Amino acid sequence: MTYRSxxxxxxxxxxxxxxxxxxxxxxxxxxxxxALDASPATLAWVxxxxxxxxxxxxxxxxxxxxxxxxxxxxxxSLGLFTLAGAAAGLSGSxxxxxxxxxxxxxxxxxxxxxxxxxxxQKFAPHERARLSSLVMMIALLAPAASPAVGGLLVQSFxxxxxxxxxxxxxxxxLLLAIVWLKNDEPVxxxxxxxxxxxxxxxxxxxxxxxxxxxxxxxxxxxLVSMFYLQSVVKLAPALTGALMLxxxxxxxxxIMATGxxxxxTGPRPLILTGCLLQAAGIALLTFVGAAPSHSLPxxxxxxxxxxxxxxxxxxxxxxxxxxxHDDMPDASALWNLNRQLSFFAGxxxxxLLLxxxxxxxxxxxxxxxxxxxxxxxxxxxxVALLKFNNRRVVIDLxxxxx
Length: 402
Known about the structure:
mainly alpha
């Protein structure tokens, strides 16, 4: 096993742990509410606290890497992540649980950008499309599996096991990081804590825009559509939850296609197709209420899955193509901060707009308007592609392969 494969394996395990801990907690909220005498509003901070910790820590990851070295920072952040997860499972009060989740999020907030930068530095630009496909596969599988696995754990062992169950994997990842990762010399040259001038890089800036408008919008659409489909269309909760199955299957196919096609086609056709597919899927939700068949929401989610994953996979592959080796820690921090803000912004924007529209229009018109707005935002990267030099990207990729 080559050294770069070992680095990639450690990073991917860390990324898997981060996503599992981000999505697994919500399934245990009813059991937590009973055990900790907490309301749903306060329990939301069990998840929000983790995300807040992530967002707070990400901007400092590059500076910590330069000062202490990537290996030390990765191991220390993974150790903090693991200890905080164990402490969360042992918490005796909601306040303690939220506090430890914030700490765990801070460990993950350093762990992921540092691991990503360390991994991307080991692969040439033309090799990163397949690496991005592996990252996106984990980003697909972990959220899809977490609620089901978490539900079994809660039902069989209790809510605390959603925090205990990932610990063996975390300890294995920590051991592999200690054994496999090589020491690197710290670089104490920069006093910056986040290198914003990197946003002048057109590929990084464009890829971040894609994430804001496509995966970010899907998070918001997924949230509001769950309410729409159950409260307005009257779909059963089980059927509503099953909509992620066609989404996952279509996402898998899109991720595989991106890994094979990116170096030959460049990002433009993939992102253009992805924007159109996701926008069509979102717009299709407006016809669900009038349709007698339950197949229409399945088609809508399949379109969103294929379109969203074409865009996110291509953006992930495109983002760091022209980033200098030494700037990778800063670029990775910016990318991951944008990823978290995308998820937050999509849900926040659509729920706030929905509240305003419901005060001005009929309920059905408000729902339909929010879907059309989300579809329009999804198409913004397609407009930006008009000025995108796709030919230059393809030529550079071919040169790298030679």
